[in-house]
């Protein structure tokens, strides 16, 4: 199986060490542009742009980098409950058109109630997934060219439609991750690619089987991806030393404070990440070459593949054998580590050159004049 490898734009900060400002660097547009242009040239398929109150806005970041990249795809966050699905569809179509079909979208339901409340969203875990399912239904149908009338428990639209369609047909793909039963139900019914965080093989295998079964009930198939960090060096010994150096400046008090915060959310996936290390920095290799040190202080993806190029490639193949075809990697600092991954890991991988299942055929953009009363004038008026 040819693999898709994406990188990560660190819009919440970057540096040489976790849990400290030592070795940190300024993350401005120039730096993000450096990373985007580097991974575009190095052969990564796309970049994930994170979302949340600690991050720069993912849509604006993607839009700002379209013109300075050529092939790179941008995986941008959709936030149900925070934005109208019809407006989000219009924005998605615009980004897809302006980037000539390089837009991908990541449905992010969110797992931190305090952050969501600050955004004006006061739904519990079950309600958030209900609202997300309604959002995704409307968003998909509008982008596919339908006029949507929908009345659900949380959302209602009347005659929702899109005048300017996306470039990708029938629409840009929808990515989504979540470990709860409700999340897997949504994935099975509505998304193209289900993302898991980097858990040990048996746990990932179980998730894949569950989502496949749920998709089959709807007569669908779902592709699978995994979100991981990576630490690759010329030797595996060097890679493990780099892993230890990454957390060298974190003290036990910082770990305890971070874990208290991270486990206070209602995210099932975040609790699963925390359970891999239990806040203990002495038991961090939780599976062969799978290291949980990043999750001591970082929310979201908290594990890394560690080793030389052939070793990391072998671990990736084990995930691929389960059905994973997309790897979304990151590493600290993100600019230098992108080069290391390309130079030391890519030669050992069968990389997808152009994944038509991720980027469907592009439709031609037709010439059109200005709208008249919100409608297109299809033919020139002729005087009799």
UniProtKB/TrEMBL annotation:
The keyword Flavoprotein applies. It catalyses: an alkanesulfonate + FMNH2 + O2 = an aldehyde + FMN + sulfite + H2O + 2 H(+). Keywords: Flavoprotein, FMN, Monooxygenase, Oxidoreductase. GO terms for molecular function: alkanesulfonate monooxygenase activity. Its EC number is 1.14.14.5. Signal peptide: none annotated. It is an enzyme of class 1 (oxidoreductase). GO terms for biological process: alkanesulfonate catabolic process. InterPro entries: Alkanesulphonate_mOase_FMN-dep, Luciferase-like_dom, Luciferase-like_sf, SsuD_RutA_monooxygenase. Belongs to the SsuD family. Homotetramer. NCBIfam families: alk_sulf_monoox, PRK00719.1. Catalyzes the desulfonation of aliphatic sulfonates. This is Alkanesulfonate monooxygenase. The gene is ssuD.
């Amino acid at each position: 199986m040819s693999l898709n490898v994406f990188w990560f734009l660190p819009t919440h900060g970057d540096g040489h060490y976790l849990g400290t400002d030592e070795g940190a660097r300024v993350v401005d547009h120039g730096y993000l542009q450096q990373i985007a242009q580097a991974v575009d040239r190095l052969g990564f398929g796309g970049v994930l742009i994170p979302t949340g109150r600690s991050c720069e806005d993912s849509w604006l970041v993607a839009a700002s980098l379209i013109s300075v990249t050529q092939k790179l795809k941008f995986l941008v966050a959709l936030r149900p409950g925070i934005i109208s699905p019809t407006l989000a569809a219009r924005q998605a179509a615009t980004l897809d058109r302006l980037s000539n079909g390089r837009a991908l979208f990541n449905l992010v339901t969110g797992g931190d109630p305090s952050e969501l409340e600050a955004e004006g969203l006061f739904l519990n875990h079950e309600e958030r997934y209900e609202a997300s399912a309604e959002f995704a239904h409307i968003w998909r149908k509008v982008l596919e060219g339908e006029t949507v009338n929908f009345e659900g428990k949380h959302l209602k639209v009347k005659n929702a439609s899109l005048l300017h369609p996306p470039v990708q047909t029938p629409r840009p793909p929808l990515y989504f991750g979540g470990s709860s039963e409700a999340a897997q139900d949504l994935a099975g019914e509505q998304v193209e690619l289900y993302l898991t965080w980097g858990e040990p093989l048996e746990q990932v295998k179980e998730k894949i089987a569950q989502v496949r079964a749920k998709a089959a009930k709807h007569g669908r198939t779902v592709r699978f991806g995994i979100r991981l960090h990576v630490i690759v060096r010329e030797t595996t010994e060097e890679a493990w030393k780099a892993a230890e150096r990454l957390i060298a400046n974190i003290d036990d008090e910082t770990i305890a404070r971070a874990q208290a915060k991270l486990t206070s959310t209602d995210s099932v996936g975040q609790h699963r990440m925390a359970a891999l290390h239990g806040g203990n920095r002495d038991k961090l290799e939780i599976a062969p070459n799978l290291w949980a040190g990043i999750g001591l202080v970082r929310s979201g993806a908290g594990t890394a593949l560690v080793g030389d190029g052939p070793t990391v490639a072998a671990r990736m193949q084990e995930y691929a054998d389960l059905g994973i075809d997309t790897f979304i990697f990151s590493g600290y600092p993100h600019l230098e580590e992108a080069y290391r991954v390309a130079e030391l890991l890519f030669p050992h991988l069968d990389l997808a050159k152009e994944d038509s299942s991720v980027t469907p055929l592009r439709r031609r953009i037709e010439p059109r004049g200005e709208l008249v009363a919100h409608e297109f004038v299809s033919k020139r008026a002729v005087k009799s």
